[in-house]
């Protein structure tokens, strides 16, 4: 999961409040002249967690904050769509007496990717395309692609033998890059994609099509900006901009009122502060804070703001097999298909594979970490995390905002939540 390094910002983590046992008082069915004592019925928690064991995660996060290794955070844990834990940790801003609000808005970076993948697959269900369609069928700029034979120097590109398909874009196997590895080629990709000033997602995708590939399509998994192609195809297929499509088809049905590419007027003060990790492992405020507004590139690679509560609404829909409020947002079988490993023999991190927009746990013994087989997940570059455990029907979201990305906290989230499952 070292592949999870991404591009932008977000700081906070949401923690979820525990469901404790409650005593419910009920009246007898009949009232006689002689009053009968009320019946005391003990209602057991609906979840499967030992809340005392979950507090190990509290202790871990509080220790990391006290040592200035992470900033304030928000954590949520749900099971079967019911809240198990909801907590925030640390201050809203370092040095402030104000605690981290649970409704803090984070720049979720690559946690945009799973949302865009689900949105895009709604159009698959409606018959707009096939997964094996070449992207060039809809975006002609991808007809003539080249593959770099060297990632440094002049790149020495040669013509690609295989067309990039829509499935390649969903699985990061098209040979495209994210511009993050530090090679000459990736530095070029990064500068052109993100620093050259594209105004729209169409602009950015045309830049992506002009760049050499790092490998032949279909022959490797390489973390990439290919979900931007999904956002652009939404425009081509529907005539709607990606932000309009996401609002209409995902955010409004799920009630994700604080999620979007720009923070709504009046809520700018809720944006999480971005921090930078120093060489000694401690944090200081980042020199460049993510702007709350003015974003016009509505991409699938990154770009969304959200809260832990909003993102958990998305996770609850996934846990509920695609349903929300009795309506099927995405088909159950489509979701099952998306959360299978689609890499075949293409290597990924040990014990993991990749589906259509999600990392997938495929072999627990090879991961050497606590989880359930079939768990799917992703993270954001500024250290925002989520995962879904379909076997236990558990979803967890942890939000903070610092850079660079550290897989350590993704692993710790899953570890501490999984070890607390008691029955």
Shape: globular
Percent of residues in beta strands?
15-25%
Q: What's the helical proportion of residues? A: 25-40%
Radius of gyration: 23 Å
Quickly count the helices: 11
What series of H and E elements makes up the topology?
Answer: EEEHEEEHEEHHHHHEEEHEEHEEHEEEEH
Structure description:
- This protein has 423 residues and is of the alpha+beta class.
- Helices cover 28% and strands 17% of the residues.
- It has helices at residues 51-66, 112-125, 166-171, 184-194, 201-210, 227-238, 242-254, 308-319, 332-338, 364-367, 407-418, and strands at residues 14-16, 22-26, 39-43, 73-79, 82-89, 106-107, 146-147, 158-159, 275-277, 283-285, 305-306, 323-324, 327-328, 352-354, 359-361, 376-380, 384-389, 394-399, 402-403.
- The strands form 6 sheets. An 8-stranded antiparallel beta sheet has the order 1-5-4-18-17-16-15-14, sandwiched between helices.
- It is globular and about 60 Å long.
- Mean pLDDT is 90; it is low at 1-35.
Concise summary:
The protein contains eleven helices and 19 strands.
Q: Could you list some keywords that capture this structure?
A:
three-stranded mixed sheet; single chain; 423 residues; eight-stranded antiparallel sheet; alpha+beta; 28% helix; disordered N terminus
């Amino acid at each position: 999961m070292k592949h999870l390094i991404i591009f932008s910002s977000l700081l906070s983590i949401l923690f979820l409040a525990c469901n404790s046992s409650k005593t419910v008082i009920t009246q007898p069915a009949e009232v006689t002249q002689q009053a009968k004592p009320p019946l005391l019925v003990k209602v057991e928690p609906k979840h499967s967690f030992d809340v005392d064991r979950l507090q190990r995660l509290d202790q871990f996060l509080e220790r990391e904050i006290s040592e200035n290794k992470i900033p304030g955070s928000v954590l949520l844990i749900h099971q079967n769509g019911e809240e198990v834990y909801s907590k925030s940790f640390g201050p809203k801003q370092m040095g402030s007496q104000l605690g981290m609000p649970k409704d803090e808005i984070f720049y979720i970076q690559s946690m945009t990717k799973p949302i865009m993948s689900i949105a895009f697959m709604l159009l698959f269900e409606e018959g707009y395309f096939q997964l094996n369609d070449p992207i060039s069928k809809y975006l002609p700029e991808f007809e003539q692609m080249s593959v770099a034979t060297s990632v440094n120097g002049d790149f020495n590109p040669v013509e690609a033998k295989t067309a990039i398909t829509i499935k390649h874009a969903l699985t990061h196997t098209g040979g495209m890059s994210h511009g993050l590895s530090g090679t000459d080629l990736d530095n070029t990709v990064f500068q052109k994609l993100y620093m050259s000033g594209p105004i729209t997602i169409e602009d950015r995708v045309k830049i992506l099509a002009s760049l050499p590939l790092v490998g032949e399509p279909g022959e490797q998994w390489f973390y990439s900006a290919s979900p931007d192609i999904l956002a652009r195809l939404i425009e081509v297929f529907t005539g709607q901009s990606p932000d309009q499509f996401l609002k209409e088809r995902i955010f409004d049905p799920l009630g994700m009122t604080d999620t979007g590419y720009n923070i709504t007027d009046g809520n700018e003060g809720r944006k999480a502060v971005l921090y930078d990790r120093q060489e000694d492992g401690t944090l200081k405020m980042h020199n460049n804070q993510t702007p709350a507004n003015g974003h016009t590139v509505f991409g699938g690679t990154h770009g969304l703001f959200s809260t832990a509560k909003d993102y958990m609404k998305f996770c609850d829909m996934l846990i509920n097999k695609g349903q929300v409020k009795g309506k099927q947002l995405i088909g159950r079988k489509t979701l099952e298909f998306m959360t299978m490993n689609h890499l075949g023999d293409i290597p990924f991190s040990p014990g993991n594979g990749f589906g259509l927009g999600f990392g997938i746990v495929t072999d627990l013994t090879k991961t050497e970490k606590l989880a359930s087989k079939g768990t799917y997940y992703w993270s954001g570059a500024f250290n925002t995390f989520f995962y879904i455990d379909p076997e236990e029907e558990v979803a967890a979201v942890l939000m903070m905002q610092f850079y660079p990305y550290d897989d350590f906290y993704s692993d710790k989230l899953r570890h501490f939540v999984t070890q607390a499952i008691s029955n």
